[in-house]
């Protein structure tokens, strides 16, 4: 393949020059639109797939496909922020519409069970663009010291480093090589069976006296059962991954994998949050909050020098007197909206850790009406793993430790 050729989704050799030619799905859709006819079921998805397959850039060994979910933040965010800086009413309209559009897109992808890089791209590009505006519009005013720029830069670098750790393996359970192969025979374990329900709160229970030890809530014995077991004996059997999940593990329908101590699937990192990366996820949120609040404070202190940062956020006379100040103030409000959303996520996470409950367990407890609402409904106490504030945090800080030993009473 030359740099402008590629193999399309139908396995045929194609060229970038013909990317706008011979698109049967798009032609049919335009014909139906011109004749006021409705699209048949699945037509819009086929058009989207065809367009996504043809959006490519030249490369050495052939044209490389671009994920179209990366493009909207790169193009729309700078344009919308610059338009919002033209007038106060435009800023009010745009900054109100942006969260609504993001939530709508999240609902759309969540309903279709699709993975997307849109939110990760939006987050990373927002960080980069806000840092660029800070260096170009705020620092030249002379109110920000060199040491403050260094501190802000270090916070940004540390947050990105924590994000890279959070995107690593969350604790995926190994995929079986063959569906009919098992790691151990049932005849070797006559005293064990699977109990509980399929929500992952219950694992492998040992009949009689419980004398075994567990690591991170997972039984050390047989971790799988054959597919031929009766349904009553495989209540915690994952039919998709073909394995028995340990306690607190769950199946992510977006990743298609079972994860140890699954908390939730975070669209902002495009990965699950589980046993192995939960600490890095909390660290990323904490560093983001500190860095963002510090940057907002420095910017407002430069634009509105005679007011406190909190008062300047709501009342800053002269913020729209020149375009540079208006753009900086608009970016501050954009950062404040994002920071408020991330702060709420961090608050819920800290409360859940304090009660040793995951987001998945809280959602299932609400569905089954088995949990207690605490602190005005901010946290759901399931009562399964709560051992007190200090013990809960000690357990969280030791997640992923290979030497962690827990008593059998923690296995439900």
UniProtKB/TrEMBL annotation:
<feature type="transmembrane region" description="Helical">
    <location>
        <begin position="280"/>
        <end position="303"/>
    </location>
</feature>
<keyword id="KW-0812">Transmembrane</keyword>
<keyword id="KW-0449">Lipoprotein</keyword>
<keyword id="KW-0012">Acyltransferase</keyword>
<protein>
    <recommendedName>
        <fullName>Palmitoyltransferase</fullName>
        <ecNumber>2.3.1.225</ecNumber>
    </recommendedName>
</protein>
<keyword id="KW-1133">Transmembrane helix</keyword>
<dbReference type="GO" id="GO:0019706">
    <property type="term" value="F:protein-cysteine S-palmitoyltransferase activity"/>
</dbReference>
<feature type="transmembrane region" description="Helical">
    <location>
        <begin position="146"/>
        <end position="163"/>
    </location>
</feature>
<comment type="similarity">
    <text>Belongs to the DHHC palmitoyltransferase family.</text>
</comment>
<keyword id="KW-0472">Membrane</keyword>
<dbReference type="GO" id="GO:0006612">
    <property type="term" value="P:protein targeting to membrane"/>
</dbReference>
<feature type="transmembrane region" description="Helical">
    <location>
        <begin position="323"/>
        <end position="347"/>
    </location>
</feature>
<keyword id="KW-0808">Transferase</keyword>
<feature type="domain" description="Palmitoyltransferase DHHC">
    <location>
        <begin position="233"/>
        <end position="362"/>
    </location>
</feature>
<dbReference type="InterPro" id="IPR039859">
    <property type="entry name" value="PFA4/ZDH16/20/ERF2-like"/>
</dbReference>
<feature type="transmembrane region" description="Helical">
    <location>
        <begin position="117"/>
        <end position="134"/>
    </location>
</feature>
<feature type="transmembrane region" description="Helical">
    <location>
        <begin position="79"/>
        <end position="105"/>
    </location>
</feature>
<keyword id="KW-0333">Golgi apparatus</keyword>
<dbReference type="GO" id="GO:0005783">
    <property type="term" value="C:endoplasmic reticulum"/>
</dbReference>
<dbReference type="Pfam" id="PF01529">
    <property type="entry name" value="DHHC"/>
</dbReference>
<keyword id="KW-0564">Palmitate</keyword>
<dbReference type="InterPro" id="IPR001594">
    <property type="entry name" value="Palmitoyltrfase_DHHC"/>
</dbReference>
<dbReference type="GO" id="GO:0005794">
    <property type="term" value="C:Golgi apparatus"/>
</dbReference>
